Amino acid sequence: MTNATVVPTIQRAPAKPFFFHTSAHLLRITRLKANTLGELLDALRQCPDDAIFEHTFRTLQEHHFIREGFSNDFAHWALSDCNEPSLAERLASVDVRAFTSVSELRERFVQIVDSYLQRNPGVGSRMAQETFYFCAADIVILPTSFVASTMHEFAEGVRRVSLHSIHHHFIEARLRIKLMSNDFSQWLHEDVGLTETARALNRIDIYTGTLEDVRGQIVRIVERALI
Amino acid sequence: MDSVKQIAENTPETSADSSDLPMAAAEPVPIRPERRQSPRTWETPPAPAPPPHLDDYRAIVGEAELDELRFLARDLKRKSVKMVNSTAVGGGVAEMLNRLVPLLGELEVTTHWDVITGGNDFYEVTKAFHNALHGSAYDLTRQAQEIFLMYNEQNRQRMQFPEDVVVIHDPQPAALIGARENTSARWVWRCHIDLSNPDPRVWGFLRPFIEQFDAAIFSSQSFARQLPIPQYLFYPCIDPLSEKNKELDDSFVQKVCDEFGVDRSRPIVTQVSRFDRLKDPVGVVQAFKLARKYVDCQLVLAGGGASDDPEGAVVLQEVKETAGNDPDIIILDLPPWCALEINALQRASTLVVQKSIKEGFGLTVTEALWKGKPTIGGAVGGIPNQIIHKLTGALVHSVEGCAYQIRYLLTHPEFAAQLGKNGHEHVKENFLMTTNVRRWLLLFRILLGRRTT
Fold first, then answer.
1. Are B298 and B16 in contact (CB under 8 A)?
2. pLDDT digits (tens, 9 = 90+) for B335-374
3. Rounded distance between C-alpha atoms, residue B180 and residue A3, angstroms
4. Global pTM?
5. What is this model's ipTM?
6. In this complex, how many residue pairs, one in chain A and one in chain B, have their CB atoms less than 8 Å apart?
7. Could you tell me which residues come within 8 angstroms of residue B63 by beta carbon, excluding any fewer than 6 positions away?
8. B43, B166, B256, B426 — which has fewest CB within 10 A?
């Protein structure tokens, strides 16, 4: 039996309610762009944090409907415009949920591209088919009309909020709370006492399903805790 | 005379050149329905439908999405916005503002829409500017500059700007920025045109005005310029409730196909676009002929522009010559108000093609993706923003590539259906009118310093 199915069968009143929020993003075009992998590396080092956020965390939301084959914009460009599948695979393997700060995430991408270009020195100056434009996300945080004072209301809230809200609480959250976790798991652990349920949520793979699939998995795990 | 011209004649099926015959020559020849010579469509434009309300979008984007718009608008309720452009009717900007302004009003963001005025000399100059900003060579004279500035000054004196945000659309009213010193408004320049390769003199003339704005908005990353002000990316959008995109009864789709002689029992490949070389309709016919050696299908080329554009008529003639007497190639020169018929043809299609050689954003791609159609697009302009190769459609770079993708998608319907499904979701997330409203509200909040609620 996997850990994901070992959820408590208790039902507790939360110590405090869960307020569902959401975030809205506006795309800003920065001055940085890359026509070669060498230029990409330079821009990765210089670009603002919100550009790294845009091309990793945010692009996952923008492409939330894709089940496989899309991880981040850098990997996509390395494959589709630079024809470097090996580099693309490495870039695509970066799981944003392994990072609690954008600077660590930036360092990981720099490291991958830098080491690839050192091993393949001729590749760095080859022109890509299309330019990579560095964009950044300006964020506005918003409340929603959903508040959960019980586990049933929490499950209902997860079912009914927008996918932007799911992304805000489940994926972007770790940059805010600086923990290898998410808002849902934190609430279930700290305010409801459902530690195993919290852990089960944290193990959901966001790269092998759509965000709607992720929502469905969250609901199923939470419902199992209600039995 | 009927305003709709159906070009391809209902010719005998034996006319195809032997080199174009399908390889599986033993296949029975399909029976084709009789094609009308004069399909029934509108002679004149029908009255425009009233703009939809926000709640009309609930079934499409969901209650939570509409709630987010309301929350975004909540802190803007005592704020006002002015939109300024150069035409009240016709063209994509006016069409977009006709939908956007009422929706912002419904969200209690008071939005005024003003249209500048000018003489023929002004519009001649701004048309030339438009073409020059798209890359055409242009001799910018002092007289042209004076005409541009004089009409902008006349409009500046006529107009008032008491709003909190002023949005100037496109270059024509750009010099109205001269009025900002007397206002406390935030000023935004919304550029709807491709500035990736502008005539340097015209851009050099306009640039000092643009630099005085608080922000600029472009439709593609590649259209942005090096400017000292923030530049935002607003993709163009479609309205899912417009005649071009709304759901249709299958009986209507069937009726349109019957009238145009399109056989729904066989695969239909469609390109909707003006008869313009940049849309490469001749290349589409060539790709279709290559593909049909392997798969049975029909081609529908539905467009316009041949009756009011001399070059369009020439291109149409080239398309007809390339098509020959092929009964499976249906060429339709439609007037611009046949949105319902275009909608029906797109919905009847098995695949949609937009094999452009140069493109702005490519809203016909957006329309096809919204209808869940597997879509093949030229890898130019804004098409790669919409078609992510093998994920939301197929990108091609040549006639041969286009032919291969037609063959592949027609023979792999499950993969094609997945592309169509992904494409629909891509449009829903990024290219709908409600997304556009969200972007405007976000921008207003950011400009007015209201990032959190």
1. no
2. 878 999 999 999 999 999 999 998 888 999 999 999 999 9
3. 62
4. 0.87
5. 0.89
6. 91
7. A160
8. B43
Chosen from B65, B429, B441 to mutate, greatest number of chain A CBs within 10 A: B429
| Nearest residue of chain A to residue B439 (CA atoms) | A26
* Cβ pair A24:B388 closer than 8 A: no
Query: Are the CB atoms for A4 and A224 separated by under 8 Å?
Result: no
CATH classification for the domain delimited by B75-237+433-447, as one of 3.40.50.12710, 3.40.50.150, 3.40.50.2000, 3.40.50.300:
3.40.50.2000
Query: 3-class SS at A81?
Result: coil
| Cα(A37)–Cα(B54) distance, integer angstroms | 45
Q: At what angle are helices B433-447 and B92-106 packed, to 10 degrees?
A: 70
- Compute the average pLDDT of residues B263-284: 95
Residues of A with CB under 8 A from a CB of B: 22, 24-29, 31, 62-66, 69-70, 76, 80, 129-131, 133, 135, 138-145, 160-162, 164-165
Give the chain A residue whose CA is nearest to the CA of B390.
A69
Quick check: A133 and B224 CB within 8 A? yes
The residue type found at B197 is N
Q: Tell which CATH classification among 2.60.40.3550, 3.40.50.2000, 3.40.50.1100, 3.40.50.410 matches the domain B241-430.
A: 3.40.50.2000
DSSP assignment letter at B53: P
